[in-house]
């Protein structure tokens, strides 16, 4: 095979990083793109045994070079190396993540040794972060290592003799092989067989020559991420293949960037199961945080708007940004203020910072506490809510190194509280972060946070399409459910006109009464309708959700409906299988408060139980709580029976798009009709060629021309050249989307002819050319899960697009709900006082309860249709 794993991808990686072509006998080859700081050394030339992780001679030279105290007494380097060896050996007892965390402290120069005067402790530098050129960067391949057994990773990157990156390559020309196969080798084989190699690891990467994915130690493959170059965010799939992978490779492993990821964009946290985990940034978090930091460093503009799609990691972006801002010596110990607009978000953000052991974090419990911290000029990371700026005095703190990160910037941040916050901190930097696009209703957010100098008003933008493409979030599947509720429009309008005349109502009074009598919640909470929807939910959950080990949320019209749904759901599931999470008010009865009230601590316990895969809590029933700022990756399905609009809708449905093992999509089952209009905007991507196959004689006559057309795309390309040089030349001949599409059309047509004719002997004379074309096609073809899926189109008035793989339209259910009968209409019409709307509403609901089964009228009127319920003429 001319293009294999070694000569096409592994050697290409070495060539990109070090400028050496291992496929030739030439001594050197000039480097054409940046990244030349890496020098290639064959694995056999490294001064180490097969059992050793560190290249100790190189490390010892670095320790002497970077530490004056060790330079004065070089034998001290052996003491440091002994400490490092101890951590390597301990991996079997402590576990890989904890061993990696211990070594991380050494790599980031946080550890000290008694090398100073009178045995005083001095920091030990393994790496020079201030002057990256002062480090040694080596790349090698076929790095043989033995622990329990011998393994040979394809590519290893070493800094100062320490292996900090492990890479695995697979062939680009076999359709059954992807980067996942390479990642599987690292995660499931190498990390278990030779864990010592990964103790100093910053990250590992995997590629098949088309896509490049990376992840930290012990990271499940679902959470590995792609890397993008700075300009690839603006195009969907620019030029898949070696060239694009090479750009991403060089960008990610540019030494200064790799050191930045090590020092500022790596965290160790504790998950819900009290397990230690390592987290490293995704591309959008790295670029977003550094763009924000660069603006602060420049100091000219004092604001910026960051839109990163729901679920793509805004909270961690704030952690990384706050951490790096606090470490920046140029900012002279700044204050970073993280503001949210609700107490539950405050708890969530505080939990993320605390779990990651971020230093100098303060969470405020009261207005006075926040104001005291600011008045006393506290130099820490302060987490608070916007509401704690109530009654704040102007010019509370006028320092210009206060950086405010406002989470969910489209909400309450722009009312009086937002103005008070700005008056209290007049010289602060203000950065707004939002997970939803700013729509017409929120244009003042641009004014508050956006800068005219930023393209589109955003300092950083990471859309839903970007997040789906990069697997930062999951696609959403929509399952519309038709709940038909009918009323005879003509009869209703005629009766109402008669009532208006008899009661001497003005048009305005009649219109007001009409609006109230058609209030949506009254119809949605009809007992028969709720009963039938819950029955549908129970069947759907047992068939599609529970067998996969996922959980669900039910979103109801209001608090009373939540109780209705709960009571009905208890007839299908044990009582402990569902919990109602709602707020209670001062006007609620004592009985209602006792039964349904829930304080902050209880709510946190419920959320923890819901996130526990082994717990028996399967449903959360809500109306407003937990629709935003609620992170439960195990939540896969949302049953939606409420009118939600704009960014609130987008935030709500994205509760289901979080990554979770075994989860491939989030699901919205829509009983309200929220997505009726959105569904019309969705289009299918059906660009595959459809050729009608007639008979073999005709097919034989077509083959020569089809082969000629496919080969014509590579005029001047020497197909005898093997390895990455030959493959890159072929890819360069089709280096635009237009050329790729044209080649794909011709090759797909040729492939259909080929498959239909096989095993005809006519194919023998074309076999070599066809195999070459097939390998080139496989090497540039997008990953399989990007083909033939639904395009995601606009949702909302602004440029937002909600992208998803598929629309699942369930069987259309004719759920005979309740009926608006003549008795109800008469009761409304016979009441001459239109001001008694509340009484009429109660009477209407009571009548629904009593006569919900009389099939008198069969369609809803226009006013109900305007509220969002589908109507059909009776």
Automatic annotation (TrEMBL):
Record key words, sorted: ATP-binding, DNA-binding, Endonuclease, Hydrolase, Nuclease, Nucleotide-binding, Restriction system
GO terms of molecular function: ATP binding; DNA binding; type I site-specific deoxyribonuclease activity
Quaternary structure and partners: The type I restriction/modification system is composed of three polypeptides R, M and S.
Keyword Nucleotide-binding: yes
PANTHER family: TYPE I RESTRICTION ENZYME HINDI ENDONUCLEASE SUBUNIT, TYPE I SITE-SPECIFIC DEOXYRIBONUCLEASE PROTEIN SUBUNIT M AND R
Record-level GO BP terms: DNA restriction-modification system
Family to which this protein belongs: Belongs to the HsdR family.
UniProt function note: Subunit R is required for both nuclease and ATPase activities, but not for modification.
EC number annotated for this UniProt entry: 3.1.21.3
UniProt superkingdom: Bacteria
Catalysed reactions listed for this entry: Endonucleolytic cleavage of DNA to give random double-stranded fragments with terminal 5'-phosphates, ATP is simultaneously hydrolyzed
Pfam family, one: HSDR_N
Keyword Protein biosynthesis included in the entry's annotation: no
Lineage: Bacteria, Pseudomonadati, Thermodesulfobacteriota, Desulfobulbia, Desulfobulbales
Protein name, per record: Type I restriction enzyme endonuclease subunit
Matching SMART domains: DEXDc (SM00487)
